[in-house]
What does this fold into?
Amino acid sequence: MNFYFMKRSMEEQSQQPQIFVFWIMWFAILCGIFIIQFAIGGGIPTGSDSGDAPSLPLILAIVPAIASFAIRFILIPKASELVKLLPLMIIGLALAESVGLLGLFLMPAEFPHTKLVLFATSVFCILVYAPVYASAVIKREEVR
It folds into this structure.
């Protein structure tokens, strides 16, 4: 009996569920921001802002967006193992989702356009986290 083949087959099978977990988490967060926006926010905001949007909620929403992008494009490419990649993805997705939540709860109702921009920013930040990078990390692990 070829034990090397059995061992390799088991390793390959264990990699598939790990990638599947990445995709499930990403898809759940992406769907979740839409569900929250429609269930709590009453749908996609429409209309124009009445005056200038308050700066504090904007700053509080922009900081997590920048942090999320930094994690995605600086830290995730440097991650060499799936064990390190998963926490980075979770933190980055949480920061990306927080942009939409901050826009929903902190931005006053008389600024629907700004709420829409923050929601779109959140969705874009989440989309950037589509875990296509996870398979590259697995390939690097296989080379070792």
Summary: The chain has a mean pLDDT of 86. Helices lie at 3-39, 55-78, 82-106, 112-128, 133-143. Residues 5 and 131 are 28 Å apart (CA to CA). The radius of gyration is 19 Å.
